[in-house]
């Protein structure tokens, strides 16, 4: 008998394998509420994300999606488990990571260009790559708006500026928490198309949280479905639909219908679990 036929599965190595950029291993997070009660937000989440993958996370409200993103961004500490970015334990915010939240949070007294440039200045780079900033503005349709102030922009444009700012330092990983949640449906679809294009051009690794099943399937290589709190992973669904995708085409795709039904079924079961 060949030795390799024997099932002696090795223990998980301490560093993630080369083809894993984000390694989440048995990750748990418990908050202590103002009244002193323990709030179990995440329970033993395990998930590996490869470089260049586009992963969308859906789940019921309060299931710990934003918590997961904050832990990945190094903005909060975890209670148990392991969290590695590029083989290194997350111990705080990293230059490898850009974050986009639901509100663009642009500084109102700075122009769009200065807002986008801000992470480079804060990061101590004295000669921010002007070309790069201009290219980012152009790619996101803000080429003509660099000198404007945030109040002069629509909500969708502000959100695009927020994406530019997150990309300014050329991070390997982009974490997006409901980035288009506050926008009208058409603007949201347009920005989904733009994000698809930006991702295809740059191949960042993206983890995006959304409440929209169609947005998740449209954008993702994988859709992760989380349970009600404490958040666990219920399903990790591969989206085999070729890119570039359009909304008109994708809704007619049999895999779209199959995946949407599966995700909806899982989420509905969670809602009923609360009854
Ligand atoms: N700082 C905190 N202190 C105590 N509890 C918290 C804290 N932050 C979040 N929680 C709780 O942890 C749970 C998960 O919150 P989180 O914001 O991660 O959920 P979510 O899935 O992103 O929700 P939503 O979809 O509504 O944005 C919730 O019950 C929330 O009340």
Automatic annotation (TrEMBL):
Keywords: ATP-binding, Nucleotide-binding, Transport. Pfam families: ABC_tran (PF00005). GO terms for molecular function: ATP binding. It comes from the Bacteria. Belongs to the ABC transporter superfamily. Involved in beta-(1-->2)glucan export. Transmembrane domains (TMD) form a pore in the inner membrane and the ATP-binding domain (NBD) is responsible for energy generation. This is ABC transporter ATP-binding protein.
